Structures are given as C-alpha cells and as structure tokens.
Amino acid sequence: MRHAELIASFTSQAEAMGARVIPVAGPGEVASKLVEILRPLGLKVALVDSPLVQTAGVEKALGQAGFSIEKDGACFARQADTGIVEFDYGIAETGTLAMDATDLKTRLAAMLPLNCVALLPVERVRANLTEVIDAYLGRGSWPGYFTLVTGPSRTADIERSLTIGVHGPERLLIILIGDNGGGHHGR
Amino acid sequence: MAGKEFKQRIRRALDNASLRGALERFADAYIVSREQVYAGRDFESLRQRIAAIKADAASRYEELAEQFTRAVEARGGKVFRAKDAAAAREYIYQVAREHGVTDIVKSKSFASEEIHLNAYLQERGITPHETDLAEWILQLMPGERPSHMVMPAIHLPKEEVARVFSRYLNEPVEPDIKNMVRIARRELRKKFLTAGMGISGANIAVAETGTIVICTNEGNARLATTVPPVHVAIVGYEKLVPGIKDIVPILEALPRSGTAQPITSYVTMITGPVPAWKGEGEGIKELHVVLLDNGRTRMAADPVFKEALQCIRCASCTNVCPVFQLVSGQVYGYIYSGGIGSILTAFFNSLEDAADPQSLCIGCRRCAEVCPAQINIPELVLKLRERVVRKQGLSRGYRLALHGVVARPKLMHTLLRAAARLQGPVTHGRPLIRHLPLFFSSLTEGRSLPAIAGRPLRDRAKDLERPLSKPRLRAAFYSGCVIDFAYPEIGEAVYKVLGREGVQVVFPQEQACCGAPATYAGDRETAVKLAKQNIAALEGARAEVVVTACPTCAVALKKDFPELLAGDPAWEGRAQALAAKVKDFTELVHELTGGRQGPFGPPGGNGEKKQGAGEGLETGRQGSLDRQCTTSGRRAEPPGELTQAGNQAVKVTYHDSCHFKRHLGLDQVARRVLQGQTGLELVEMKESDRCCGFGGSYSIKYPEISRPILERKLKNIVASGAEVVAVDCPGCVLQLRGGLDQLGSAMQVKHTAEILADCEDE
C-alpha cells in the first residue's frame, strides 16, 4: 500500500472508531492548532515532554495562550482537562495508535483526563499490528507497558447502548503531523 | 433429567421478559455486525491459525509456563503457580496483607470469579471494587450474577441500574444511560486513585516475553494496572501462547467475534513491573502473576477435552446459541456459560456441576461454525454427556427406552406396531418424537403419542421394490425410525424419485435404529450395539450406495459408527466401508441429475442420464410447460401434494436442518436441486439455518425451550410468503408440521423427496 493510502485508511478507521483526526502540514503548525482545539475543552493541560513537543514549541504556545501546564508531580494529570502525548505509531488497518507507555507520565496523561491529544507524525503510520510489533522487536527489548489505543473509551454495558468515555478519555484527538517544514522524528 | 432447581432457573429466565428481550435484541444485532466486521477476511484460515497456536500451547503448558516465568522474573516480576482456587486465593490475600491493602480495584477477570476471590478477600477485611461498569453494577446488587461472558449485565434494564445507583449514592438517579456512565466514572475514579492494589485478568500471556495482554473498551484495566503500586494478574494456563507474534491472530479474532469490533479501544501489554507512583515518589510497581491451574493441566492431558483450552473467551458461541439466547448465562449456574462453559465447568468445578448445564445443548452446531478457535463444542458436549452418563447412569426412563427397547429392534418394532393400533384418535398436540426410543421415554412421562403410521415403510417396501430392467445403481435405503414408522410416505417418495432415476432401491429388513438417540443421551453401549446390527444388515443388501433421507441417521452411519467401533478389529473396517457408501437422498439425486435445471429425469423417464449441465438447462426450460409440479391428488392425506394455481410457480422456502447443513454440508446442494425443478420458485426465509427447536429428545426434555425456538422459526417461515417449506430432515418435518398446525397455517412442510416426487410428468 502506498503511504498516502495508509494515511487515508488510518484516518478513516480512526474516525470510524470515534477519534477525531486533525491533520496539520508540519510540526510548525502543531502548537497553534492545539491552542485552537483545546480552548473549548478547558485550560488545564498535562503535557508529556518529547522531542516533537519541544520542536513544535507546544509548551510555550499553550502558556502564552493562557493554559496552565502540568508536567510533573504526584497528582500529575489527575485534575487536567486534557493530556497531550506523542505516540510511536499509527496502524492503518484499524485506526489504532501504538506506544511504548512504560514511562508513567505518558500513561497517566493518556488515560486520566477526559480529553487525550495524541501527536503522531504521518511517517509513523504502518499497515498493521504485525509491522508495529516488528518495529519494536527491532528496537531490542520488548516495552514494559505497551499500549494500543483505538478511539475513545467506551462501554455498552447498560442495555448495549454505546456510551463514550467511561474510565478513559471521552475524546481522542489525533494531531496527524505532515512532514512539511522538516522535523522528522522517525523512530 | 435436569435437577429441579435447574429447571426452576430455566423457568425464571424464560419468564423474565426484559432479559429475553435484551438477549434477543443483542443476538440479532450481533449476527449482522459480526458478519460485517469479518467482511473481506478469511475467517477459516484465521481460526485455523488460532487453533494451531492454542493447540500447540495446550500440548506444552509446562514448558511455556517455565519460559513465561523466567521472562517475567528476568524483568523483576513474580510468578506464582496456583494448583487450585484455594492456593490462588490465599496467595493473593497474602500479597494484599503484606502491603496493608484495604481496597483493591479489579478489572474484569473470569479467573477471579472462578476462584471466588471477592468473597474470600471480603471475609478478610479487604474490599475489592469491580471496575468494569457491568461488573460493578452487579457487585452493587447482592445475589446477582453475570449473564454473559462479554456483557455481564446485559440482562438489566436501565431503570434497574438507576435504582441500584440511587441506592448506592443515597440520592435519586434518573435512568439516563449517559449520566449513569458519568456517575460510574466519577465514583470509580476515586477507587482507582486510592486503591492499594490492582487485580486484572489476561486475555493472552506470551511465554517468549513474559507479556500479559489485556483487552478492554472502558480503559479500566489500564487504570487498574497503572495507578495502584501493586498489580496482581490472574492468568489461566490456557492463556499462554509461545511467541509475541501469536497475539496477532488472536487480537484479530477476539474483538471481532466478541463484540463485532475490529479491535477494542485499549489493548494493554504488560511485561514485567513498570514505574508507578508509590507514596513518596515514582518507584517500580510490584507485579505478581498468578498462573492458575485449577483443572487446566488435567484438561490438557485429556485427549478429548484438551481442545476446549483453545477457547479465547469471545463468547461468540453463546451469542449465536438459540438456547442461550432464551435462558441467558444465569441459568448455566457457574462462571462460564453456554456449551463451552459446561465443558470448562466439568474441569474447573466438577463433572457433577456440568451435568445440568451440558444438557441444555440442543446440538444445532451453530457455535462450532462461528468459533474462532475452531473448537467442536457440540461434539465435546456429547463426549461430556457420555462421561456424565458413565458416572451417574441413565435416568430410569432413558434406561428402559434405550437398553430395554431401542437396543432390541424386534421388540421395538413390535411395540411400535402395537402403538399404531392403540393410539386412537390423534390429538392436535404437536408430535413429540424423533427417534422412537424417545417415544417410549415420553410414554413414561405421560406425554401424548405421535401418530404412528398404520403400515410402516418396512412393510410397504416389498410393493415398492419393482425390479428395474437395467438399474443404474443398486441402493439400500436406510430409512431411520421416523421415516419407517411415522412418515413412510417420505420413504415412498424416495423410492419413487430414485426409481425414476433408474436406481434399484432395496430395504434391508434387519436395519435398526441408527443409535443417534443413544449417542445424544450419552449411552455409548447401546449405540455400539446398534452400529453393529446396522452394519451387518446393510452389508447384506449388497448395494453400491446406502441412501438415507434423515441427516441424523446419515451422520450416525458416516461418522458415529466408525468412531464407535474404532479400534475394534472385527468391526472397524466394516464400519468404514459402510460409511464410505452412505449418501444422502438429495445429494444422490443431485449427482444423478448432474444438478441440471429442469424437471426430473430425461424425457421418457427411463432414468438414463443424457445431458450435461448446460444442455440440460435448455431442455429443461423447453419441457417446463408439460412437466411441472402439480396437484395430482393421488394421496389422500394432507399435507399432500404441492398446490399450484395455473402455471404460476409454487413458492417454496427452504429450512436448513442443523445436521444437514453443518455436518453434511449439503445446504447448497439441496437448494440447487429445488431450484432445478420447473414450477418451483425458491424463496429464502430469514434465518433459514436457525434451528427449529426439535433436537430429538430435546423437545421432550426441554419443551419450554424448544417451543420458543420453534415459534421464532415459524414466524420466519410464515413471513417468507412461501406455500411450502422444504426440509431434508424428518425430525424437522415433524417439528414444523406440528408447529404450523398449531398456528392453523395452511403452509405445507415437505421433505425434499416428497417435493421431487410431486414434480413429475403428467
């Protein structure tokens, strides 16, 4: 499959599973896009640092826009409206996000707040789970806490009525970052 | 016979309208969604891969457990091998005690239910909080139990949940689902953030890496395994797979088969202890994996039941089970419900505990068709039944019927003839039997008699066996008891149609009951006896083909006999030779006619096969005007001939008999044969392959379950708008005729042989 098709498939599958995919042209546009989409969702943000987050200047932009940013602490992400986390891979087949979530903050930011923002560079979209597993196996030791996320948290436990947002995020926003303006972070 | 308490549970479940409604709505939607989510995928090859992975694992649990343990320990985790429930409970309790834990958050785990962990901990002052929404709701309702493996609270209406929440919060809660989910989030979040320990189950455990894989939609397993400083995972041995890549096919099938999702919202893979917040600051979480045996290794050592360990707990078998859909998981009585549940119960609990649940299986084989791990559940249920019978013995009625009568064909035939004379006026009650022994057991229960033919087929056979001058084939007709004694006219139709095709049919008089009633009752001894008698009788006919018109009999002859006599030097070969000769009537007709279109038999009707398929199509069309299905009125009794107004095609709908479709695989063959008949129009009914609820003795044993299954079938039949229902099983004929009769419907139910016999030259 050509990469463009993978991206198209990833996007349509992720959206079918209830995520919102927000494409941006390159890392340079991430910060302004975040300011725009997060404002209606509340001003408290838990942010997990990563090279991409730094290049994109996320912290500074959000701070300037009046967001309060949490990066640490015993109560990290517990009170935040939104958690922002960079993911490792996207899986086109099912619209799934994959990450090595061994780092505690990464896990907490992605699971505790009502909104989860996933940052994902387009070049990290893979065709299927097997390819992603291969990618991790290629890195050496298998991650301690490996996570696949597909859409927001959901339940159908009461009368089989699909309800979004139980214990995990109610909103999953995927910022799909194009490679315009450089800033490759292929892993 | 099922225990009294068990029967009461069935009654209660059947009387619970909201439960039945919920299960029905769910199961109906599930069938459609499952099909969609598998669209474009090769389900057969997927299930073969899963079955291969899991079967291999089941043959070397010890090795995999050791490898798994080494891998987890290398990362700093602990593995405890629990030989039984008590050991597992005590270990977990001790871990909790060491850490001074008072509250535990639990993510859904059947293994923990299996070992009754909650009660054990509670008695010792530790409170486990279920965090899966459904499990939590049930936990707040003392005395309630899960009704489904994947959707445990599917039986509760939202109003009931609102009452539960109101009680819990001590304030009124509206039955608004969205709002109730928010309440659950709010309340359980407090537990996640304060609990001293998290307990999870596992969907898969990878020996190679020491990884535990957990699938959830709600995200509760992620929280339970991330926030508290201690994590205990309870993992049955059957969750072990060798390599990390083995999870791929399982993850492909589990959510698709379970809830018809391409993947669950979250798949969490934990390998060894990971960072966690521990009081003062970030530290390393404590990870304990309890590898639970509790009957699993005994099961793995059992050559027959080992297969059930391939189960990936998707519950699709129960989702498509017509019985489960009516009675729900609450009736089965133990943790694992449905057919597979009864098998697991036999090993995780005891054979005694499985005795009642296994008896609920009607044997329609729908579950085997959808099982993503390729487990032959209905077959295993039969094996289980055999063991139950071996241990507990047959009930008195069954013993009398099977050993006293069925195993002695001469006596049985004499009794049937007597019954035919004595039966008196036939009531409008549904006929109740399939194979005659059941008729005898029904006698002992004071049930009404089915109509026994005045002259059985075996007495009519001589008149039917006019020698053909140049027969194409010599066939022995194995009629089975129902055709012989209840529906000899089906047998006559078989003679007529095959005769037209130039087949010389003979009726070996020494043939006896095929033994299916004994097999399905778990009475192997009688089944073996009958197999031998039938083999000898059919060999005597010196026929090239043994033709049957009852799929249950066909399965007995083709599959059961060789299996029953395997290892018996005197009989094994003979059983196999017979099996190779057995052919279903409709299948044989299809072969003889080359599946060509058009009325039966070439012009002139001398039984010679002339055309190939393509040519025949043309000829058939041309001949359609003068040779059609008609109302010949030659037979007196209704349901008689096909009715037809003018030259309009008679609308026929086809009901798939379970054995015919799922054992013999002839469903499409039957349709082709019917479509080939000029003057017939085949219209499909909804759910044509759904069981009619007969199941032989089942309708006697569980009439309260059989009846609603039949009712649904009848609704679909009537809605098809057909005038005739075609079936290839005399048991289904019996059930459907009885049901339509009660509805006062004019629709006719006919065996394919009867339909073909009616389609003839004017």
What features would you describe in this structure?
Chain A: Residues 9-177 form the LUD domain. Chain A: This is Lactate utilization protein C. The complex is a heterodimer of chains A (187) and B (762). Chain A is an alpha/beta fold and 187 residues long. Helices cover 29% and strands 27% of the residues of chain A. Chain A has one domain: 3-Layer(aba) Sandwich (Rossmann fold), CATH 3.40.50.10420. Chain A has a 6-stranded parallel β-sheet, sandwiched between helices. Chain A has a 4-stranded mixed β-sheet with strand order 8-5-6-9. With 762 residues, chain B is α/β, with parallel strands linked by helices. The chains are: A alpha/beta (187), B alpha/beta (762). At the A-B interface, helix 5, helix 6, strand 9 and strand 10 of A face helix 2, helix 8, helix 10, helix 11 and helix 12 of B.
Describe the structure using short key phrases:
heterodimer; A: 187 residues; alpha/beta; Rossmann fold; six-stranded parallel beta sheet; four-stranded mixed beta sheet; 6 helices; 12 strands; 29% helix; globular; disordered C terminus; B: 762 residues; 3 domains; 37 helices; 50% helix; elongated
Topology:
The complex is a heterodimer of chains A (187) and B (762).
Chain A: H1 3-16, E1 20-24, H2 30-38, E2 44-47, H3 51-55, H4 58-64, E3 68-70, E4 82-86, E5 89-91, E6 96-100, H5 104-111, E7 115-121, E8 125-126, H6 129-139, E9 145-149, E10 154-155, E11 163-164, E12 171-177
Parallel strand pairs in A: 1-12, 2-3, 2-4, 4-7, 5-8, 7-12
Antiparallel strand pairs in A: 5-6, 6-9, 10-11
Chain B: H1 4-15, H2 17-37, H3 43-58, H4 61-74, E1 78-82, H5 85-98, E2 103-106, H6 110-114, H7 117-123, E3 127-130, H8 133-139, H9 158-169, H10 177-194, E4 197-200, E5 204-206, E6 211-216, H11 220-226, E7 230-236, E8 240-241, H12 247-259, E9 266-271, E10 275-278, E11 281-284, E12 286-292, H13 296-300, H14 316-319, H15 322-327, H16 338-348, H17 351-358, H18 366-370, H19 377-392, H20 396-406, H21 409-422, H22 436-444, H23 457-464, E13 473-478, H24 480-486, H25 488-500, E14 503-506, H26 516-521, H27 524-539, E15 545-548, H28 551-564, H29 572-581, E16 582-584, H30 585-592, H31 613-622, E17 650-654, H32 658-662, H33 667-675, E18 680-682, H34 698-701, H35 703-719, E19 724-727, H36 730-743, E20 748-751, H37 752-758
Parallel strand pairs in B: 1-12, 2-3, 2-4, 4-7, 5-8, 7-12, 13-14, 13-15, 15-16, 17-18, 17-19, 19-20
Antiparallel strand pairs in B: 5-6, 6-9, 10-11
